[in-house]
Amino acid sequence: MLLAALLVLGSAAVDAARVWDGSRFAWYDTDAGDDFKSALPIGNGRLGAAVFGTPTEKLVLNENSVWSGGWLDRANPKSKDAVPKIREMLVAGDITGAGESAMDNMAGNPTSPRAYNPLVNMGIDMGHGSGIESYTRWLDTLEGTASVNYIHGGANYSREYVASYPHGVLAVRLTADAPGKLDVKLSLSREKWVLSQTADTGSGESGHKVTLSANSGQSSNAITFWSEARVVNSGGTATSPDGKTISITGADTVDIFFDAETSYRYPDAEAAQAELNRKLDAATAAGYPAVRSAAIDDFSSLTGRVKLDLGSSSDVGLQPAPTRLSNFKENPDADPQLMTLMFNFGRHLLVASSRDTGPRSLPANLQGLWNEDYDPAWQSKYTININLEMNYWPALVTNLAETQKPVFDLLNEAIPRGKAVAKTMYGCDDGFVLHHNTDLWGDAAPVDKGTPYTVWPMGAAWLSADAMEHYHFTQNETFLAEVAWPILRQAARFFHCHLFEWNGHWTAGPSLSPEHAFIVPDGLTQPGRSEGLDLSIEMDNQLLHQLFTNINTTCTILNLPQSNPDCAAVATYLPTIRPPAIHPTTNRLLEWHNPSYTDTEPGHRHFSPLWGLYPGSLLTLNTNETLADAAGTLLDHRLASGSGSTGWSRAWATALYARLQRGEDAWRNAQELVKLFPSPNLWSSDNGRGTPFQIDGNFGLVGGMAEMWVQSHGGGGAFVAGAWWN
Ligand SMILES: *[C@@H]1O[C@H](CO)[C@@H](O)[C@H](O)[C@H]1NC(C)=O
Ligand SMILES: *[C@@H]1O[C@H](CO)[C@@H](O)[C@H](O)[C@H]1NC(C)=O
Ligand SMILES: *[C@@H]1O[C@H](CO)[C@@H](O)[C@H](O)[C@H]1NC(C)=O
Ligand SMILES: *[C@@H]1O[C@H](CO)[C@@H](O)[C@H](O)[C@H]1NC(C)=O
Q1: For the chain: N or C, fewer Cβ within 10 A?
Q2: Would the CB of 626 count as within 6 Å of ligand 4?
Q3: Is-cis flag, bond preceding 711, omega within 30?
Q4: What is the pTM of this model?
């Protein structure tokens, strides 16, 4: 790094200019204004903060169990009688009739589960409305902290933000380089459904208190939360001018500790507040320096498990992140460290948004942990026809296996919900079914209303494969027996009931290929129409093949007897799942069983029929080269037709090319993602204009990049090349 070296040698001349490690830090010479997607995200796996760094500091705070309401039973009882008839219509070629009946009888009521909601905003007014100079704001992806530094009125002010997993709180330290310089007014605010707000000075060592309690708006069945900031000043005096805010004047240092607890995890206000007080008392007693160092030790012990070195950038790597992003569009090869930063940032986000925080821990949702809207895009829920799974693509291959625990906690919530929906909607008395989204209650009913996405009974099959992968990477037999096996077994039992024999194959349906539609060909009803619903979907067959293979593997590892009904059933189903097929003229892997179907969107963003190439391993080169070639031909066709149109779609393309061992194509797609989709704070997005924010692209990119260097699938023959891992 030539320029960095020069800066170090000539440091007097370039005064306070800091030499940034462009692989580790995203830094800014401006605040975020009112742009959420410029705010810096930190988190402790349950509480998140987006740091705006504005003159009056704005922190958008989140807690991962604050959603728009309690459990909603959305199951549609008309479905049970309709499913066999819809199936018959599909067998008879009445594709349109089947789709219409499915929409009439199978859509959930209401069509959407709960939405993820904001917690509170914290305001820190230091009276620095104008006159700020030498401003710097940065995110440290190794330590998981954010900071702001500037000169005002001749004094040098610093703000530091830490999310502590060990103490379970967020912590802030405000300092100035001269004593008595800090005037701070601290407030908590929320737009909707505030139940109470208080402030209380004079609680000594344990801090002055600002509290805010609110709920999700319903009169019954609401989610309620209690939040509190403790303000500890050294020097100066504290007052509460209005009973809602704390005002400190003339302090040397001000520390703030914050927690929120919700009715999702505690039975009543008393229990939630006791937990809140326990955490805040412990954090204030320990003091900021101890909270900070424990938080950083913990965070960096996870992020520090991988060091990626892709070479050094030219001087562009020393620029503020928005400049780097804009330079990268023109000349990506000049800033390889931006790719490394995106890799490190993705791992930072996973550690920040997904930890084992005790019972009912919750996984990273469509926005991870960070959300400022009461009506976020796609409810910021858990979309399980790709997005939630993609969130965890970095988890195993970059040595963060423990971040997956919340996924299995959520499945624990979802199993009873999915059993109820299997019974009500499919007449299946055993096993559980999930459709293409869920929420914190493990919602299992079909979501939205459209034939290319609503009726997809495969969510549990996919997530069960992630449980099996967790075992393969960790070799934890207790996990396999106690966590993965119940998920696998209950997922399979639904299919024992649901599958039917068609053309000599055990077949699932009605179902669909997420979220793509085909044109109904001549000879079927109604030709020329765009439809989504069908039988024997290629992706379904791959998921079923994986599910029954995983059951069989588990039976062997756990030494279960041949007579075990779950193990015995494998011999019935596995050999007769329809194998993948290749189109006779295009040589592309078929997405639907009928080669006469044509794509409505040849450049569709999903790569559902390629599931078996990545994240599965049924279509890989060392499994079956013919199928891998056909998969590659489909992948090339999709991308040539405009796919890769979202951040997560590019990430999936990256991983798929990596599995095909086509390094140039994998790298080009990874670079395209970074050219097209990051917002100023590096969050991935769903289109090139940076909105809406969707975090799966950040996570998927890490998984896809890792796949370029480390692969371990298709029979255990791992190869490692090109990078250093530790
Ligand atoms: C302000 O203080 C920080 C250390 O807290 C230092 O890194 C920075 O260079 C100082 N800024 C100026 C302009 O002196
Ligand atoms: C193995 O899995 C069990 C069950 O999930 C878990 O309690 C335990 O901590 C895991 N062991 C290790 C070493 O991670
Ligand atoms: C199940 O696994 C065993 C042991 O690996 C294998 O011999 C058997 O063929 C598998 N069963 C099926 C139906 O594939
Ligand atoms: C590979 O897949 C093709 C298409 O399903 C099949 O015909 C062929 O037998 C498979 N080859 C091997 C070696 O399994």
Answers
A1: C
A2: yes
A3: no
A4: 0.96
